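Hey, I was hoping to borrow your eyes for a little while. I've dropped the whole record in just underneath, so have a look:

——
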Amino acid sequence: MERREFDGAIALLKEQERIYRERGYPEGLWNCLANQASALADSGDLDGAMAAYEEQDTISRQQGENGWLAQALAGKASVLSRLDRRAEASRVADEALDLAIQTGDEEQVEFVKRMKNENGL
């Protein structure tokens, strides 16, 4: 993807984020932030990705959604690993796995285990 296309995609996600914030729709906001975080991490903007994962973490805790939180923490752990903050990444990944197990969502458990394995955590 060319930089111009990427910037356009991020701009659309930011507009979507604005709308979800205005409407007070936490699930939509959480999903939008997930898309932003993934795109930013893939483009190498790890600080931007971390900010999106941090906000996802906050929303998940506010909503009492452990499944959401497990996903957000898995993304956060992946970025922390790429930032060479391995001890923190390992702690966050372990929390993500514990939460995924608590939810009973086997797909989520496998997702977190795969992320841990891919990042050597």
Notes: The CA atoms of residues 80 and 89 lie 5 Å apart. The first helix runs from residue 3 to 23.
